[in-house]
Amino acid sequence: MVMHASPLVLAQQADGDTAEQSGAVVASPQNGSRLDTITVQGNRLYHMAPSEQTKGYAVDSATVGTKTPAALRDIPQSISVVTREAIEDQNFHTLDEMARRTPGMRVLNNDNGRSSIYSRGYEYDEYSIDGLPAPMASIVGSVPQLGAFDRVEVMRGPSGLFNSTSEMGGIVNLVRKRPTPDFQGSFTGSYGSWNQRYLESDISGPLNASGSVRGRMVISNTDSDGFVDNNDNEANSFYGALDIDLDEATELSLAFLRQSYDIDVNNGVATDTSGNLLDYSRNTAFGADWNAFQSQSNDWIAELTHQFDNGGYGRVAARYSTRNADFNYAYGGSGVSASDTITVTGLGAKVDERSLAIDASYSQPFEALGNVSEFVVGTDYKRFEQDYERSAARALYSNVSVDGINDVAYVDILGNGRNGVSGYTYTNTRSSVEEYGLYSKITFRPIQRLALIAGGRVSSYDVHAYERTLGQGDTYGDDAKFTGYAGAVLDLDDHHSLYASYSQVFKPQTDLDASGRLVEPREGDQYETGIKGSYMNGRLNARASLFRLYDSNRVVASADVDDRNAAAGETRIQGAELEVSGDITAQWGVIAGYTYMDTEIKQASSSDAIFLLMPKNTVNLWTQYAFQGGMLDKFSFGGGVTAASSFSSSQGIDAPGYATVDTMAAYDFTPNLRGQLNVNNVFDRKYYERVGSFGTFNMYGAPRNVVASLRYQF
Hints:
Blueprint: E1 19-21, E2 24-26, E3 38-39, H1 51-54, E4 61-62, E5 70-71, E6 78-82, H2 84-89, H3 95-100, E7 105-108, E8 116-119, E9 122-123, E10 126-129, E11 132-135, E12 149-156, E13 170-176, E14 184-192, E15 196-206, E16 213-224, E17 233-247, E18 250-263, E19 292-307, E20 313-332, E21 341-368, E22 371-401, H4 413-418, E23 424-447, E24 450-467, E25 472-491, E26 496-507, E27 522-535, E28 540-552, E29 555-556, E30 566-567, E31 571-583, E32 588-601, E33 617-626, E34 635-644, E35 647-648, E36 654-655, E37 658-668, E38 673-680, E39 688-690, E40 699-700, E41 705-713
């Protein structure tokens, strides 16, 4: 039997002796990565080790887009995994910070925790925790902080089989830190430029003598004055988890996560009246000094798993989430005139969201034609609800000097909209999406080196949207919508596999058009093919991919604050990706990638311009080396480059390409105490990371900044 470390491969020992784990019996391998025979009784990858335990920049498997862990080579789509060590080396605290330096991802910059994250031209509008989704939106500030998570798994391209409501760009899955069988803990503190401060405590271990009950608690606080004036940003996170062994094969896991943001909003600088970018100091704030944004999210998670004697694996899990946000701010509403004045626009809103995701699945390896295959069957339920109250004033103030915009008088923008004050638009919308789904997938190996993957999903939808102010509303329902999936993986040798896949997305939308009717559901397809490599016993992974996506009916918000949403035309996106990530040696880690993207609007829409903000070429590189012995013993050094080609906005604002360099140095004072220094934008490159309209969302990248950290673990 010739297989790599897929979910169907069981335990093996390096010395070649027969190994037993989770009821599995495996004969000795003939080489470092292949097995000769397999007896199917269990599956070690259903309980893959966390990255904080395996260390380094690589894991051999992922769970995103699947229901049980699968080797990266066995998933016929593009997958990246950012491990705990990579997160700490690069000093990431929020998902959008991480995404800025992750191959294949694009961030439309805003305050940390409020940025929009894209892949293949599409925004990630939800994120999963251990496979359970909830909405994510920059306007709600629900981009998560990372202290509670062991690793981040990123799938590019749709995954309509297990999550038909996902965006075309893919899925982000955050894998929780789990309670550990042994007592451990860590304390981290950092301080840097603009009074950047970070404190984290992480305590884990058994709660009873037998170790059958284990707990973990992670608390963190982030605070920064920001490099822009009047742009304080504070974030807090609390995570608590319990894992309880009900018996040797059954585990109950409970968790609670609360995160919050308190931000003095920055919306970028203005252009001139012709849309030309201006050369302001990077600390210039084009907003009122009373700008404010607060948000809070709460997640309750429960999971029950059971390992069956026949090697099957069952899981029932649920996640209930609440999100709320309040914001009130004034920002540039026009270009800067020849007399150095500007119109000021105002926006105020209150958002409340509730979501519930429940999933039950069963996975089973089986023998057929002398090879090991696997099937997954399951059902899920999702309900997303949102109440969104919004008020905007296109000309909150007129002819305000650039120097005086910070000092404009306070206005309760939402309150004025509620009260019908002239010059304000006001909307009050309630929407909900409810979905039931049945899904099944089979991975069948007719011959040793070929895996054929097929799956299908039948979903039932119920969508409601109601605009209270205008008295307009609409509903949509579908009792049996089918979503298909197909893929193939062919092993060329012990290290390389060719793959191809086809995936669909059907996504009901809750946006109302100008006539008060629901915009038609999204429909999309992706074709992807490529080659994957796995080296150093799965510690180093490489991928080269080609993809093409077709999409129609994507909702596009108008640039006019007074206008309603509309459906975009049909879009075709195609491109190529190269990625290498993992550990070249035990001391040397690397994350590198290149993305090329080409977009064609096949049926034009005047509002459909988000793809202009996607550079055709992006490059990400990060590498780190830890010295052992010699003069540099106990030192680690790292560095990286983030680069993008030119891009434009829908209003014709052109931003040149840029490249920035980041570095880090660390020293292990003792096996338990580590000091680290991160320097970002080493050469202090001044560049625009995002462009938008004449008045707003023209965002400078951060100037050179330094952060010193100290971490004690036991």
